[in-house]
Amino acid sequence: MPHPPQIRIPATYMRGGTSKGVFFRLQDLPAVAQVPGKARDALLLRVIGSPDPYGKHTDGMGGATSSTSKVVIIAPASQPDHDVDYLYGQVPLNDSFIDWSGNCGNLSSAVGPFAISNGFIDPARVPRDGICTVRIWQANIGKTIIAHVPVSDGQVQETGDFELDGVTFPAAEIQLEFLDPADEGDGEGGGAMFPTGNLVDELQVPGVGTFRTTMINAGVPTIFVDATALGYDGTELQGAINEDKAALAKLEAIRAHGAVRMGLIDDVAQAAARPLTPKIAFVAPPKDYVSSSGKPVHAADIDLLARAISMGKLHHAMMGTASVAIASAAAVPGTLVNAAAGGGTREVIVFGHPSGTLRVGAEAKQAEGQWTVAKAIMSRSARVLMEGAVRVPGDVL
Fold first, then answer.
1. From 2's CA, which of 9, 170, 294, 343 has a CA 20 to 30 Å away?
2. Which helix (H) or strand (E) holds 216?
3. Tens digit of pLDDT for each residue in 184-218?
4. Which range has the worst mean pLDDT, 181-185, 299-303, 347-351?
5. What residues are annotated to the active site?
6. Containing H/E element for 328?
């Protein structure tokens, strides 16, 4: 029986922050995949190589981790005063769906460079040498991100001396501003920075325990727990968590019940179909440790320790969106994150993660009893790894 030939689709493979993914222009996708739906998901799943029962992504572009199994679609801006729409999809390793429920803060750093290099920005706005400002509409959560992209000789400057823990080689620095980063959500607490109305909640998880949590919508919906409540000290690396199936199950149970409490889902059974959001993270006061690269991290150089779970596994560094959540929560006195950082008013923090440290800032204010964050700021880097086209079997559509 004859089989249809492979489809060739223009694409760019990019690193952004501590993540990498396959970037597409919306116009380059097959017509049936230019709109949301089963055809689009089937195509992009095949590009990445999911679902893969072998857990390797051997027959696709994915990297078999949450940080390296991602897709991005860039389109002309649908909103006034923006340059592009940025749609992000997290591709699970072993499931046959794509989670479109949130943003990837790390890959956000690659959107500006991609937009400039692929003709989305008026050439008159791109300086020969300097900084090009790209206004991005994050279509998953309906928020604005401003990327400040270095340009040299009229082209995106990718090489440089900016070092980012969790990334092997230095590159050019890209500053990102996440404006009003509270995730609008789709539940009763959607749009509120603290959807339960509390800075700290007692979360009961049947069969597991009761935990003091800070649940916040900023960057990405995130549930923060004290490390000590989980039996940790905040210096854990991936092996300590990811090789402990009981620990992962416990963290997932907390995440599922927190998602219900935040109004993101109606029942804990729905959490499995929404693995991208909310995130669950644990925090602790500063302590000396050695990062995954062997680099010493000194307590005197950081404000707190933070570890976060991404797609059911401890992240090797820190998700960009979770970094926004950490900075936002740290800026509000009374949260668990603020307490771990020593309390007080904090607009900029440095936190320790498994790969090293990260500096991030947030401007929080309170009005009529409600906390908001005007913007969060962090620096990342990005570069093109490969460009050309991906190929997928024609019978996928």
1. 9
2. strand 209-218
3. 555 444 578 999 999 999 999 999 999 999 999 99
4. 181-185
5. 104, 319
6. helix 320-330
